[in-house]
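Dear Dr. H.,

I hope your travels went smoothly. While you were away I took the liberty of generating a structure for the chain from your last submission, since the lab meeting agenda had it listed for discussion. I wanted you to have the full record in hand beforehand rather than looking at slides cold. The sequence, exactly as received, is reproduced here:
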Amino acid sequence: MPSARLWAALPRELAVHFRPRVDPLVRAILREVRPAVPEYRQQPEGVAVRQAITRCLDTVGAPAAVAQEAWKTVFRDLGRAEYDAGRDLSRLQSAYRVGGRVAWRHVREFGRASDVRADVLYICAEAIFAFVDEISALSIEGYTAAMTHATDTLASRRRRLVDLLVADQPVAPHTIAERAASARWPVPDLVTVVAVEPGADDHEFVPSGLPAEVLVDLVRAQPCLITPERHLRGLAARLPGRRLAVGPATRIADVPRSLSLARRTLALVRRGVLPDRPVSHCAEHLGTLWLLGDEFLAREIRARSLRPFDGLKPAQRRRLGETLLVWLRTRGSVLATAKELKVHPQTVRYRVHQLTELFGDRLDNADDRLNLQIALRADVLLDR
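The corresponding predicted structure, in token form, is as follows:
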């Protein structure tokens, strides 16, 4: 359902009582958007933010406002501006999401202070996030229109196709098919996305010898390739001096998710968490990517599950943690643990006795054992 219909279903007096909060809400959104999206720190005072809030308030309890279209130009123009600035839409979409969260927080606080019924607040929440989706779609329209009017070469068409494929906002299959045909790119059933480490000469560098089925965009801030899997071999040689991270093979609709994993893999390689290789494959590190997908959560799990270690000296904690992880992985086999750790079985028995004193019955509980394995693995990764 369009957001305007949701706003129109709300009581008109809500908008009347909320209007004095517009200026504080604009300031709050700008305060949170600018740190989240550094490129917008120097932007003028939030004209578009105020336009968005005003549009929503004008529509509350006013079905006649649903058909008005002029406000959409503002958000199409924002999409055009991103293209003209040489950026993809990820920053603008991130700003929209942050703004939506801040707006909902303010509306929720207003609702509680004004004794607004819970079912009315639910409609407000749905309307806010539907509106965020709508303005994102409008900016994609503007961005796409700006690309269409840009220099119409095959290379630019292919870069525009990459922009569509990696956009967070879903794109209709027929739109992708049209753009792919224009870019002379046969759409495969599955593609592989490769995140490329940026290089200083990306604007001048053109990799040679790549098949026509490989889409390349090294100009963007986070360069990438999109290719059928059969063309992966030899990519590193054509991109010398750059690390590559290969995402899971995926359908076209899931390209942004695969690219996100590839970029996270590349970031973990640069941090030293993953081995430093010219080409890293996400499929070999799915457990690590999952575990460090939310590092705050991983640290919480580690802190809570391994609390019995808190009073130990670092060296003793390391030895016992290492022993416990291997012992759990080998299903409590003393001999297998001793072999992997290259210590005497009696040493393992002594350490297991210490661990039993520290953790007690938790070592016999399946759920606790699983949490301990996750926490110990996180401990190793985070310490890197």
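Two observations you may find useful: Residues 3-149 form a domain with the Globin-like fold (CATH 1.10.490). The beta strands are 192-196, 215-217, 224-227, 244-246, 279-281.

With kind regards,
E. W.
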